[in-house]
Amino acid sequence: MLCAVILISDPDDYPIICNHLTELNDQETHPQGTVYEVGKFSENGQVWKIVIAEVKASNSDAAVETERAIASWEPNVVLSVGTAIGLKDGVNAGDVVAESSCITTSLAKKLSPASKHDQTLVELAIV
Fold first, then answer.
1. Which of these, 76, 124, 67, 62, lies nearest to 99 by C-alpha position?
2. What CA dihedral angle connects 10, 14, 16 and 18, to 10 degrees?
3. Are the beta carbons of 92 and 111 closer than 8 angstroms?
4. What angle do CA 69, 73, 74 make, to 5 degrees?
5. Does the pLDDT value for residue 52 go beyond 90?
6. What is the CATH number of domain 2-126?
7. What is the pTM assigned to this prediction?
């Protein structure tokens, strides 16, 4: 079964994502304290195991949680879901924004594209 990890930085988004999952009843706690909930998502005959966790929105916390989730669950894809308050022109409320590389705005330095890794890392933003 394919596996996706969804890391959620905005507590308001957590129940919205849960509403799309079935069999959301398993809960596991990582030794470092991260609480994961496990459910399923089915579409077009494809069933995914979905692992979700609420995480802090800071860059360093997000990086640690992403690494922890990859090591713990070995997902096919990791989604970081949150509110992109820094986006402006051409982006409207409810838009989904996906990027192919990771940029750290605090250093304004472009990092390696996520495609260099075994897992596909995509950041989604709900604005």
1. 124
2. 160
3. no
4. 100
5. yes
6. 3.40.50.1580
7. 0.68
